[in-house]
Specification:
mainly alpha; about 140 residues
Length: about 140
């Protein structure tokens, strides 16, 4: 662990540079790529903040659908284990065992909504805010 600059500070400075200096002074493809890069830095910053909580919530949801499983403690193992559990969930969905009328269908919908919300909190929080203003979510 390092003191200063923090990872958040680094991401913020580079994102700010791209948005304030590069985007306004470029056009075309370069401007587009600078906007994309700035957006990706923002996503990375949000993921650092939210990843742990998102993992815990998603893991609990998957446990409700697939049964209990020990959650790994390190990030790399969490990602691998989550992907495996998500693949199992996809198999359950494809099999029809979680279709409408099944005992777990409402739980499935709740878990899927939470997974999508978590993705949007990282990739496009402005969309969630706009939907909340319209009373959608």
């Amino acid at each position: 662990m390092h003191d200063r600059p923090t990872l958040h500070e680094i991401l913020d400075v580079v994102q700010g540079f791209l948005e304030a200096e590069v985007v306004p002074t470029t056009t075309g493809r370069t401007q587009f790529l600078a906007r994309v890069a700035a957006n990706l830095l923002g996503q990375a910053d949000r993921e650092i903040d939210l990843e742990s909580g998102h993992f815990e919530e998603a893991w609990r949801g998957l446990e409700a659908l697939l049964g209990a499983a020990r959650a790994p403690s390190d990030r790399a193992s969490q990602r691998e284990a989550f992907e495996r559990r998500l693949n199992l969930l996809c198999e359950e969905i494809r099999s029809g065992r979680l279709d409408s009328g099944s005992a777990q269908h409402e739980t499935l919908l709740r878990v899927l909504r939470a997974l999508v919300r978590a993705k949007l909190e990282i990739s496009n929080p402005a969309l969630l805010a706009a939907d909340a203003e319209r009373g959608i979510c």
